[in-house]
Amino acid sequence: MEIERKFTIKTLPDHLDNYPVRIIEQGYLCTEPVLRIRRDNDDYYFTLKGRGMMERLEENMPISAETYAHLLTKIDGALIQKKRYMIPLDAPSFKEGYTPSEDLALVIELDIFTSPKPLIMAEVEFPDSECANAFIAPDWFDEDVTMDRRYHNSNMV
What residues have CB less than 8 Å from 104, skipping those under 6 apart? Predict the structure, then answer.
């Protein structure tokens, strides 16, 4: 199960080059249900995503580079290309009344899309929906677009 919230960005954080970056490209074989192929640096995956907005099934299966190349010729729509910066969220803020577990480690996945169109978005994955709903976004985040289907990658192609 994937539990995540998505946000547009007001401003980029300083020193992006200090964070690990992944080069990602992905295409969709189908969007209902969502069947995706992805190259993530030198790793390749076939993914099934269930219905939902903030919470949805996500099953990843590793595939070979050859299988990825074969399936790439079969995608519907444009190929998504993006850089993903992995930014640890050292002191996350939460709504009053929510106490996170001591071992909670959240990471901002900052995506800078180059294709099919320029866009910058951030995603944060959570251990459960209570944590996701209590999360207060950092000041450099802009609009919460978690419930806006236009920001699902499968709808961007």
Answer: 92, 127, 131
Catalytic residue (choose from 19, 28, 44, 85): 28
- pTM reported for the whole predicted model: 0.94
Residue 78 one-letter amino acid: A
Cis peptide before 127 (omega within 30 of 0): no
Answer yes or no: 151 catalytic.
no
The H or E element spanning position 29 is strand 21-31
Is residue 24 within a helix (H) or strand (E), and if so which, with residue range? strand 21-31
- Residue 155 confidence (pLDDT) above 90: no
**Closest of 44, 76, 80 to residue 152, by C-alpha:** 80
Q: What does the pLDDT look like over 29-82, one tens digit per residue?
A: 999 899 999 999 999 999 999 999 999 999 999 999 999 999 999 999 899 999
Complete domains list, the chain, with CATH: 2-156 (2.40.320.10)
Residue type, 20: P
